[in-house]
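thought: fold this chain, then report.
action: predict
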Amino acid sequence: MELTWHGHSTWHVVVEDTELLIDPFFDNPKTDADPEELDPDYLLLTHGHSDHIADAAEFEDATVVATPELTGYVQENFGHEHTLPAGGMNIGGTVECGDAWVTMVRADHSNGIENDPDYSGGMPTGFVIGDKKPTQESDPDCTTFYHAGDTGLMSEMVDVIAPYLEPDAAALPAGDHFTMGPAGAGIAADWVGADVVFPMHYDSFGPIEIETREFVNEVKAAGAAAEPVVLEGDETYTLD
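observation:
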């Protein structure tokens, strides 16, 4: 599994022959990527804030995976025709996306579409992407990536995501103010039980500027077994 961070919460994930793009927002200082050069099969949207769907219209040929509310919005406003499943999915569900299996999980956040509180995108979410379908039986051969979306620290990380979905790697928001800060992300790194954790959703604008060494220090202070890895923008990490 190849994980490429394009800054903020934008991740390009490759599972065998399937490409997934999460939360496309390329107007951030960490990326030089041209959206026109990407051709994902699936477009995963955690919620409707503008810094997560700003460039969704660039990928109208991709199949959308999002809540029904957000799916309907991008279909009507951005021209997307294909969704999985038809009409959108919801928290707790798992869908097969080519060579990947995508499970939608909870995130603790708000969700006014395009930051407008009068228009709800449904519940904000995160995604767990694996190369095998999740079951109650642990599978050491399964490779799994958890994108936490915009969230604060929540008990579901330790009660559901860690024991049931068993992420090998996790991307955790660390910019504070609108999500967890470094301290909360450090605790989350311990709770989700991943081997590798990446900070995201930071340095894109003033209120969420951080020193990434704080994230590294907080992961270690929480006693997490995870290795904190700070990626450069557009850098790829291969998850074996």
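thought: worth noting. The chain is about 20% helix and 25% strand.
final: tokens above.
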